[in-house]
Design goal:
It is globular and about 65 Å long. The N terminus is likely disordered. The chain contains 20 helices and no strands. Helix content is 82%, strand content 0%.
């Protein structure tokens, strides 16, 4: 065999192995995350039936969202995207010993910094609640309860950030299942607290704040044994002057904003929603939870998997493979995220009714949450695309570009929030909170478009052959999906009047039928597994 033929065969083998590895890892993370998200829906079903869209639930959502927003900054978002590329470099140069040293130094430095931040957050809880939800100041009970709960939930930031550090190490070593499955523990703790601990409190939602605190500790304790098994666990130590630690934190500072624009936008929406009246925050929360389900199962899973891969491409100066990986991920986005977007929009009412309707969550709550889910669903594909494209910058240790794009997206969200909400108030539409979701959707679309344009301009990404034919086939399959769902889905009134068993059966039939119709149509249209292989330029 000729050298050329041997080389070609070897590249084909590497390509298949790379595709298989990424697909397997994405499937693993998606499956494990899916278990967590399903349990999260069960948790939310328990919440709606026990607490409804009440002022106490509004207070808990804010007390829980504040440390969770900061978690996106210091954990899954900025930290992971700054830490993983540096960790890959250190591992390639110094092996496990270097990884153990760096992990100990980062854990000690990040841990102490977050401990101080947590202490400040607990002390300044009244000011923080007032800043994030100024509408609560008009109701002394809501304001006081949110403040008390924030003091309990704020330490979650410390626990989950260290959990994210452990997860980043595991992901770097190709272990994705445990980090993806760990959030299941938080949901189990919260469900247990809602059912058994809540009746012991004068304000039942206080038990949920306690559950957040306990859940953070449990998640951290779960991952440490797996890091120890790798041989890279060491006692944390303060090492601010270490060059690698400073490099990670320098990368984090702009990434804190660039990777968490969606969270800042949600906080802006909460501020405005708190001024619109009771229940708005809760309606937005439950519709956002349903939108977050496919985002977490697929979008975050895909982003988690490709970041280490892209970092290795950069370390190896393999621009062709870098471009091919992004292109491969975008094809998966179109294949999976687009039908999820359409399905979420068409089945918004049935989903909310089946999952949340009952107890103190009434028909009016269903209609209001449906309105915001319609608006959120339009941005699902954009949200997932942002998750895929942002690692393309962070893998190259470019954190400034996403910041600039994030600033623009943030400005768009703020302006459009005021415009859309003002317009809905002007036309006397009750679901004014839906305007906030619409603004967030538009901001995400602009964010995704500018991220992709930036990668194209730098000649880091280019569409590979077959995109037009692939797109037509996918759009054909989605058209059949919409026709099927609209034809067989009853009006919202039927869902509200039907019993639980009928709703579950009908919704299950629609979801399964939609998947079958979409899959069969895609296959008939010509979609094949070969279309999802990495295509490396030679």
């Amino acid at each position: 065999m000729s050298i050329k033929g041997y080389t070609s065969r070897a590249m084909d083998t590497d390509q298949k192995a790379s595709t298989r590895s990424l697909l397997q890892a994405t499937t693993t993370v998606g499956a494990m995350t899916g278990v967590s998200r399903v349990l999260g829906l069960v948790r939310d079903m328990v919440f709606t039936r026990l607490f409804g869209a009440s002022w106490m639930m509004d207070a808990f959502i804010i007390a829980n969202r504040i440390p969770n927003m900061l978690r996106r900054f210091f954990a899954e978002g900025a930290f992971a995207q700054a830490f993983v590329p540096v960790l890959n470099e250190v591992r390639s140069e110094g092996g496990d010993v270097a990884v153990r040293i760096l992990t100990a130094r980062v854990a000690g430095t990040l841990g102490l910094a977050l401990f101080v931040l947590t202490l400040v957050g607990v002390i300044a809880a009244p000011l923080i609640v007032a800043g994030f939800s100024p509408g609560f100041l008009a109701d002394a009970d809501t304001y006081a309860l949110a403040t008390q709960m924030l003091r309990i939930t704020f330490p979650y930031l410390l626990f989950i950030s260290l959990t994210s550090l452990a997860a980043s190490v595991l992901n770097t070593y190709g272990q994705f299942a445990v980090p993806a499955l760990t959030p299941v523990l938080l949901n189990i703790v919260l469900i247990a607290c809602a059912i058994w601990l809540a009746p012991m409190f004068d304000y039942p939602t206080m038990a949920l704040a306690v559950g957040v605190f306990i859940g953070g500790l449990v998640q951290l304790g779960c991952q440490l044994p797996f890091v120890r098994r790798l041989g890279v666990l060491a006692w944390p130590r303060w090492s601010w002057h270490d060059a690698q630690v400073q490099k990670i934190f320098r990368l984090m500072l702009p990434a804190i904003f660039g990777s968490s624009v969606a969270q800042i936008n949600l906080i802006i929406n909460n501020v405005i929603a708190s001024l619109l009246g009771e229940g708005r925050i809760t309606w937005l929360y439950y519709s956002d939870r349903l939108m977050e389900f496919p985002l977490g199962v697929f979008g975050i899973a895909l982003a988690t998997v490709i970041l280490p891969s892209l970092s290795r491409n950069v370390a190896g100066d393999d621009t062709a493979q870098f471009s091919a990986t992004i292109d491969w991920a975008l094809r998966l986005v179109m294949l999976i995220a687009l039908p999820a977007t359409l399905g979420l929009a068409v089945l918004a009412g049935p989903l909310i009714t089946t999952l949340f309707f009952g107890g103190v969550f009434n028909a009016h709550d269903v209609q209001m949450a449906q309105a915001s889910l319609w608006a959120f669903s339009g941005g699902l594909t954009a949200f997932i695309t942002v998750k895929v494209l942002a690692p393309g910058y962070f893998a190259r240790q470019d954190t400034k570009t996403p910041v600039k794009i994030g600033v623009l997206a943030l400005a768009v969200n703020l302006i459009l929030s005021l415009v859309f909400v003002g317009a809905l108030i002007q036309f006397d539409v009750e679901a004014t909170h839906a305007g906030l979701a619409m603004a967030l959707t538009c901001a995400a679309a602009i964010n995704a478009l500018l991220l992709y344009t930036g990668l194209r301009r730098r000649k880091l990404v280019s569409p590979h052959a077959g995109w037009w034919a692939f797109s037509i086939r996918i759009l054909t399959a989605n058209a059949m999906l919409i026709i099927m769902l609209l034809w067989f889905s009853p009006q919202l009134s039927w869902w509200l009047q039907a019993d639980v068993a009928d709703r579950v059966l009908r919704l299950s039939a629609l979801v399964i039928g939609g998947v079958v119709i979409y899959t069969v149509t895609a296959l008939v249209a010509g979609i094949r597994p070969a279309h999802l292989k990495l295509q490396v330029s030679r």
